[in-house]
């Protein structure tokens, strides 16, 4: 067993795991943060997407021991003081989900996308950036609408600050 120490959603946490343990399983089983989902564990569906050192990554493609010392944000870390993150709020308002299984990964990918592109996002870019996230329910239309709406609202908020 190997000790892994991470900063997760602003809190320093440690746990012991086998060297072969995937980061997603460490997050779910050792830390009890089950908002990060496993849809395939072969790097195809994107349900396990988290942020590692500020960028979105598929946490089933990384070993927990490889992530040692890194800064992780999971879906549980987005809402602050009981208020949804603007991307979460946009998914809710625009019906960007049905069963919700893909949603945590979609939201984490969308937050990273908006952080990198700012408000300058168009539909083609959103669809391209979401290629690594699979949804079996929605047909993607409302997901794309949600991301564009969130990008707009975050741009307006930044302009007001
Ligand atoms: Fe990681 Fe599907 S569980 S990509
Ligand atoms: Fe069901 Fe996307 S909302 S998989």
TrEMBL record:
Residue ranges occupied by any 2Fe-2S ferredoxin-type domain in the UniProt entry: 2-78
Keywords: 2Fe-2S, Iron, Iron-sulfur, Metal-binding, Oxidoreductase
Protein origin, superkingdom: Bacteria
Pfam families: Fer2 (PF00111), Fer2_2 (PF01799)
Protein name per UniProt: (2Fe-2S)-binding protein
Protein species of origin: Rhizobium alvei
